[in-house]
Amino acid sequence: MTREELFEKIQILDSEVTPSIEFYVLDQPSITDGHFQCEIYKARMQSSIVTQITKLFYPKIIKSLKSEYSLIDYDPSLMPDYDVVWKYDPDNVPLFNLIKNELMSVDRFYDSTILSYPDIWSIWIKLQYVNDSFYIIKKITNSKVITTGGWLALIYKDDVFQKLDSDILSLDGSFDVFAVENKLLFESKQNFERAMLYQDLKREVAEQTLTEIESMNILANFENLRDFLKDDYHSINKLNAIKSKPYFRALTFIDCKRIIDEYNLDLDYDAVLQKFVIDNKAKAKKFIKVLNDDFLMSEMTSLKYAANSKEGV
Fold first, then answer.
1. Statement to judge: residues 56 and 149 lie in one domain
2. 3-class DSSP state for residue 202?
């Protein structure tokens, strides 16, 4: 599907055609002994807001469809440095497709006495047109829930501050992923992967990359690197980006030292042993940026930069 075809398909959200809309509320999912479990409830909604739902989300959905992007296979462990639309095979996003299939058999309605607003894990919205189904998924965060228990919760309404007597769950036009056919448009890939429990997979891939870094034998204290980065989400993404760049396996101590010296980086090394010394988290993160080729020189100004993102030309 080309960008133009995808854009044309999404235009129905901005038309006068009214879809059938179903809201689903998901409890905290879990994987026990290899089996996925998640309580799912249908949510009641006022009929008068049905036509407003698509108008609410449409602007940001269109904004997520960049004018220039690459269409690549979905990889939960990869955070590209360029705009993409992800295509996927059901096997690549198993929990997403498992939940999507389970929605069809859900017959329990949501009740806040069963699952309180702060305990909601995510909201799924299914838009069904005659020929197309769209899914909007949003991970529920603390910022979306206003709780009243033990606190003075106020809203400003009709020019008067009023006290709330019950909790409120709010939704706006933002989303984490919009799914159409076998394409995923992300506003927050990170939240989607949290909702799909993919953090463990990302850590596994990062561990594989760390093992390869260890085999390069250019670190005096490799375990420090592992310990400093194990729970750092940004560094895990960096490690997962490195795994797709096979050149890093051929880097030597001399190669890395040249970059460190040229860019005057605060990284220590033993020139005799030809090993780098990592003694804090900042240096661990900087070393990973060296391996990820994040230090570049401007063709225009000849100034040197640390690039947080890169796009191929």
1. yes
2. helix
Say if residue 135 is in the same domain as residue 283: no
Domain final residue pick, 197, 213, 248: 197
Q: Name the residue with tokens 């506003």.
A: 187
Question: Token pair for residue 235?
Answer: 């560094």
| Helices 222-229 and 199-215, axial angle in degrees (round to 10) | 160
Tens of pLDDT, residue by residue, the chain (313 residues): 677 788 888 889 888 888 999 999 999 888 777 677 889 999 998 878 877 888 888 888 888 776 677 888 888 777 777 788 888 887 778 788 889 989 989 999 999 999 999 899 999 999 999 888 999 999 988 888 888 776 777 888 888 988 888 888 888 888 999 998 888 998 888 888 888 877 777 777 788 888 988 999 999 999 998 888 877 777 887 887 787 777 778 889 999 999 999 999 999 999 899 999 999 999 999 998 888 888 887 778 877 777 765 555 5
Q: Are residues 213 and 91 in the same domain?
A: no
Q: What's the pTM value of the predicted model, to 2 decimals?
A: 0.71
Say if CB 238 and CB 281 are below 8 A apart.
no
Q: Does residue 291 share a domain with residue 177?
A: no
One domain, residues 16 and 121: yes
